[in-house]
Amino acid sequence: MQYKAFIDEVDRQQWHEYARNFLDYSIYQTWSYQKVRAETEGQDVSRILIKDENDEIVMMSHVRIKHIVPLGLKIGYIQWGPLIFKTDGTCRCTVEALNELCQAYLEKRVNVLRVVPNMTNNSENQKYVEMLKASGFEQCQNVPPYHTIMVRLDVSEEALRKDLHKSWRRNLRRSERHGLKVFEGYDDIYYRVFMHLYKEMHARKKFVEHVDIHQIRRIQRDLPEAQKMNISLCVLDKEPIAALVWSAFGDAGMTILSATGDKGRQYLGSYLLRWELLEHLKENNFQYLDQGGIDPEHNPGGYTFKAGMGGEEQFHIGTFDTYTNSVAKNAFKIGEKIYQGMKIFDR
């Protein structure tokens, strides 16, 4: 099979039209997400389509390029990509197509290409791991893979509720008795309410912030209407007490950010928000809810809450790197050790 790469030959509208045909499309491969990340972090962004001899797109991805001046390196970062799974369930990715991806960027545009696929670690997807390795990628052992809980939605509402842990189900019933209402929208006014609740929660918990809520706001403003994140607000007597930011692409919905105000804790608003999200996704024929990542060690409370909804813990297949040569590889490895924890390198 012959493949051809097309670099930076699509506009925003074309990108969306092509990408929505892929089941592994997510908020992280939207034009707006990668554009805003690149702009705010001083990076470039490139976009690639790989077509087969029948002119069909078999792979596509944003590639965010970071310049590490002290090391003399350019690093291409593919976040939750490349997209390879079509909505009809087929995948035409091959070693040769991955080779085309590498040839398009290595030496010509970057010294290091890092790929973090949107793919769970199971026996079927091990074939893709082997393809990555056959095309020159090495699995990065020092970057923990994405770890989350996936809730299946292809069951009855009764079964969904039954799968909730006993204490979670009890708290949901309590929240339902409080007369809470849930409103959903995507306008900036909804996000401003979320930010207010988030700051109230942060003042209470004083946790380390891993997500820039202001950057997410800029992404939301840039996203076209059809791709905007949804913001669900839980309201008690006209007062918002909890909020949930979420996105839905392909066959899965994903929680992005959440916030619970002081009254939200008292009236258990976060339980109602998550349950109504499950119902909404199910009604719209999504197959899964991705809980947006878990960290049992550093955030045991968040882990317990998400685990209470049932579902299955899953890991992604991990991070893979390939290099122009051994000099670039050694410099990158040394740089990672020096700058570990300083967010110099994308993970």
Major sheet: arrangement of strands: 1-2-3-4-5-14-6
Oligomer: single chain
What form results from the Cα inertia axes?
A: globular
Spatial separation of the terminal alpha carbons? 32 Å
Main features:
7-stranded mixed sheet, 347 residues, single chain, alpha+beta, 37% helix
Describe this structure in words.
With 347 residues, the chain is an alpha+beta fold. Helix content is 37%, strand content 26%. The chain has 12 helices and 14 strands. The radius of gyration is 21 Å and the shape is globular.
Show the helix and strand layout.
Elements: E1 3-7, H1 12-19, H2 31-40, E2 44-52, E3 57-68, E4 73-79, H3 95-105, E5 112-116, H4 126-134, E6 138-139, E7 147-152, H5 157-163, H6 166-177, E8 181-185, H7 188-205, H8 213-222, E9 230-236, E10 239-249, E11 252-260, H9 262-267, H10 269-283, E12 288-290, H11 300-307, E13 312-315, E14 320-323, H12 326-338
Parallel strand pairs: 4-5, 11-12
Antiparallel strand pairs: 1-2, 2-3, 3-4, 5-14, 6-14, 7-12, 7-13, 8-9, 9-10, 10-11
